[in-house]
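Posting this for the archive.
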Amino acid sequence: MNVDIHKSWKNHLNNEFDEPYFENLVHFLKNEYKTFDCYPPGKQIFSAFDYCHFDDVKVVIIGQDPYHGFRQANGLCFSVNDGIPHPPSLINIFKEIESDIGKPYPKSGNLERWAQQGVLLLNATLTVRANQAGSHQNKGWEQFTNAVIKLISENREGVVFLLWGGFAKQKAKLIASEKHHILTSGHPSPLSANRGYWFGNKHFSKTNTYLIEKGLEPIEW
């Protein structure tokens, strides 16, 4: 099956695209996008892979679902389009960056700037129906994105995986911890952050310290 994803990933994932589950997923998505408003726009479904190429991956952040509000989702987890108010989780991410490394709170919530530096912003489910959180879960996306995580784990070394919240932490079993660096904390959502499970995790400075130790450029968060 011909899928519009960057060639650096396509070469590694062709087998997934030919699996029956993926063909079923594509059939489901064509019907969903034709019948309902869905996010992100079709051309942005694989944006995480378009902005961050396979050989450039230094950091992986795992989200669960795209934002389901109008014009929010742009194919990168936790990211919103320019000019869109920042959702609560993104606000808390930026607050932690501010306290961790002293970087001022940014105007734009568009995280393309991270992706272009080697941060794969991967939602476990890459699409959603408008205003219905979780509506495209258990349709095949999770099998695909688990394959992506395994691919990185098996074929790369020294990647930092940031696992925020219970859902993301479950992905640790897919990652070879002996050759990658896994950092875990609570989720940046207000529910978790306000209970003390997010703020102070210093994941952004810890990530850069590790990258520098590996002789890599740190991320400009």
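The longest helix spans residues 20-35. Residues 36 and 201 are 39 Å apart (CA to CA).
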